[in-house]
Amino acid sequence: MSETVTLEPKPLTRKDMMSDQQVRWCPGCGDYAILATVQRIMPELGISRENTVFVSGIGCSSRFPYYMNTYGMHSIHGRAPTVATGLKLANPDLTVFVITGDGDGLSIGGNHLIHACRRNLDINIILFNNRIYGLTKGQYSPTSLPGHRTKSSPMGSVEQGLNPISVALAAEASFVARGIDVHTKHLGEMIERAVAHKGTSFIEVFQNCNIFNDGAWEDVSNPKSRAEHTLELRHGEPLIYGADADKGIRLSGFMPESVALDGIDQSELLFHDEQAESTHLAYMLSRMTRPNYPVPIGVFRAVQRPVYSTMVMSQVDEAIAQRGRGTLEALYDSPEKWTVTAEQANGHG
Fold first, then answer.
1. Number of domains into which the chain is organized
2. Model confidence over 142-160: pLDDT tens digits?
3. Number of Cα atoms under 13 Å in the Cβ half of residue 344
4. Is the whole-model pTM more than 0.85?
């Protein structure tokens, strides 16, 4: 009599996450670094490929689902959060990622992104921010800086750029973070934390478009200058930065102030609290930009709120318990219907 042998599933590797599709971004694009980071971190999350879905809209970043050996969907411009909402509600066990860009997610898709954050759906939004429209060849985007000269703003943009972190915080996303494409170890930590979070997670990634906006993030992405120009947020710790950790951030009235630590007690500095229910401090940090301040990276906010998909499923279960499982026929024949008369149709009813 033969024995039944149970085979342990083979641990996944980065190679298991790589699809058979040729990666087609411009050589040197920051998207490669983000893709490599996601492919590296996914096996460590303990999530099966069969329960993972990547959804994208339109743009250079939106090629992403093709390159992941998971389920994926290349949807329409700006509507990836909408598709992700439907997927999560249809199958709450899925781990759903939304891959979007500053144009796709904050222009035509701005409304959809805001409401995904507001609802606290359990999805993971990763927004690639290169401050330019890359796929359509170099027009200014919602995050482009005022005065930026592009093919669609040859005299310089006259628009005020959007701040993605500020938008996500204002929309009450329960997890908000920022990473840098080539700072891969830190970015991997942000993705790992986002997936572990229950609710909408939003990560802005500074991503370089070396063709149409090369060097947009040079001072914060270059390893030689990063420590001087970025502030890595750590929960419960004072806001200290610099290659020699010799500078910090304190409040001066209602404004942040960068100070040298020589002669200043750390108790005078601001301490980061990512778990604060109020978004006041996190929002203030999101407004800190170069050249007046170091640029904060890391987790701005991580709070627990009721999860949209969980609440909807609870309502469905309650409705079934109270009324029984319905059918389309019963719905069609329900009393909630009316007749429009010819007079009403002609505006006389």
1. 1
2. 999 999 999 999 999 999 9
3. 4
4. yes
